[in-house]
Amino acid sequence: MSQHKVHVEFPGRIVFVGFGSIGQGVLPLILRHIGTQAERITIVSADERGADVAVHFGVRFIKQAVTAENLRGLLEPLLSSGDFLINVSVDVSSCALIEFCHERGALYLDTCIEPWPGGYTDKSIPAARRTNYALRETALALRQGRENGPTAVLTHGANPGMVSHFVKQAMLNIAADTGVAAGNPQSRADWAALAHTLGIKVIHVAERDTQVSPVRKRPGEFVNTWSVDGFVSEGSQPCELGWGSHERHFPADGHRYDFGRGSSIYLSQPGAATKVRTWTPKAGHFHAFAITHGESISIADYLTVKSGDQVLYRPTAHYAYHPCDDAVLSVHELTGRNFVMQSEQRILMNEISSGGIDELGVLLAGHARNAYWYGSQLSIDEARTLCPFNNATSLQVTVAVLSGVIWAMENPRQGIVEPDEMDFRRNLEICMPYLGPVVGEYTDWNPLTDRERLFPEDLDRSDPWQFKNIRVR
Question: SS3 for 400?
């Protein structure tokens, strides 16, 4: 692995909590690009998945679930000042780990703000408190008194995470192409002002995964190209979206929050049961799931322009995800079972056929050039040549985890930070070699294109980019 660029030397220990498909794909990248040794890395996982990968790289593997009761006893011997905890688990509270790492003087990164078990689906908890919005508010509240503490990076995978960096680069590209003087935006206020000036109404994280295996999904099986547990957890949460200032039609099943920053809303149904219209360059326009994701809230919040308490501008932001075809069948079966999880799970990896891609990017719409998609078109074939233990989907996530870890190591006293607050150029510099073709493309498509071909619809033709037009009913 010596031919790969080492971005940063790290003398401390590294601990993984969780070691599913993402953890397994991150490990070889860390050993390539961070100056460390296998003997300084420990994996703590609730099950045996990935144990063979740990053995392959000579990394210590501890099979033990992290719980509220054993967290300190289990992790204290493994982490102290200057060490790093990478949280790629499910059902382990991110906030508990952040507090623990702060006390120990350790750095931290996660790909999703996780609650303890049941936090997503416990009906005794009000729906508004089972959202990513609520989890984010709880995590950001930990900033008080920890402003200059060890860096804790929230939600830095592909999305949430890398897509926030895509949004900034896409805005600069649109500004250059439309003659808008973007300058060199640095602060939250600078970026929000640029989005406002460009007239961006909608930001979709628009993704189409075409990877496929000759071993097709069987009844009672959930198939995916990344964590099944993670996908089902977020798909079971209430659908959430950042709510734009241009929106004129509040959803009948929509709800606002009576706490926090107020940048988003949620619907009275899960994201896995909510479909939206979107577009990517290779796929064209398609229907996608509006799966709950943290970037929907953080991007909308970050790009808000206010005068006092009055919101002058905010884009609508949400995920628009068409997973691989077998995952779509799996979601359809899951929702038909009223969200009772299938008894079997399968992550597509080595059996994926040649030719499929994961087209992941951001669609910025409503501006002078209508809509612009910017992102990665990584194929399974290229992913296999770039890094072992990855497919196209996982590599987009794992390299973003790597870039977030490196950024934290280079900036170790930043306290709790979100992707939107990080140096987008540095992160993209690290990610780009692993993303395949990274392209930007304009389109004339909008959510009214080819509508009413079969039946009349209740549409707002005065503004194509209303969520009323985007949502599939």
Answer: helix
Do residues 264 and 133 lie in contact, with contact meaning Cβ atoms separated by under 8 Å? yes
How far apart are the C-alpha atoms of 2 and 210, rounded to whole Å? 33
C-alpha 383/C-alpha 371 separation (Å) is 28
Tokens, residue 125: 């908890």
List Cβ neighbours of 27 (8 Å cut-off, separation of 6 or more). Answer: 16, 41, 53, 54, 57, 59, 389
pLDDT score of 120 more than 90: no
pLDDT score for 161: 98
Residue 5: exposed, middle, or buried by beta-carbon count in 10 A (0-12, 13-18, 19+)? exposed
- Name the residue with tokens 């993704």: 207
Confidence label for 1 from pLDDT (cuts 50, 70 and 90):
very low
Q: Tokens 């011997």 — which residue?
A: 77
359-398 pLDDT, tens per residue? 999 999 999 999 999 999 999 999 999 999 999 999 999 9
Omega before 270 within 30 of 0, i.e. cis: no
Instruction: Name the strand (E) or helix (H) holding 312.
Output: strand 310-313
Dihedral sign from CA coordinates of 436, 442, 448, 453? negative
CA-to-CA distance for 97 and 142, rounded, in angstroms? 11
Length of the chain: 473
| Closest by Cα among 95, 93, 111 to 103 | 95
DSSP per position, 417-443: E-GGGS-HHHHHHHHGGGSS-EEEEEE
Six-digit token pair at 157? 């995978």
Query: Per the structure block, which two tokens stand in for 413?
Result: 């006293």
Count Cβ atoms within 10 A of the Cβ of residue 179 and give its class: 0-12 exposed, 13-18 middle, 19 or more buried. exposed
**Both tokens of residue 131?**
């959202």
Q: What is the DSSP letter of 343?
A: S
Pairing mode of beta strands 34-35, 41-45: unpaired
- Determine the Cα–Cα distance for residues 183 and 162; give it in Å rounded to an integer: 22
